[in-house]
Amino acid sequence: MELMVGDARVVTDDEGYLIDPGDWNESVAEALACSEGLVLNGDHWEVIRFVRAFFDEHQVIPDARFAIRHLADHGMGAKARARLFELFPYGYVKQVCKVAGMRRPRGWSTG
Known about the structure:
Elements: E1 2-5, E2 8-11, H1 26-35, H2 42-58, H3 64-76, H4 80-87, H5 92-99
Antiparallel strand pairs: 1-2
Helix pairs in contact: 3-4
Organism: Acidiferrobacter thiooxydans
GO molecular function: sulfur carrier activity; transferase activity
EC number: 2.8.1.-
């Protein structure tokens, strides 16, 4: 499948995940978020940038628990888990990984 972002065509798999995470930029994230019914705000970007940085450093997608810990450490404290699923109501893999430009993780549920 293809996603048009401005004048650029970005290739996704059948579920909407990027085939090449290198195609990602913030405009692509906005388009992917829109396809998920999300309007991104500062808290969304905090999670997305964390996932991108973690992937760049470790070459693996972080588990949700790492994103939750990141949010907890950045001002959300004990409410971090609830906030993550408030921001991305259809799940970490389904929405966070997709909008952050990751390939669909193998063996993880999208639920």
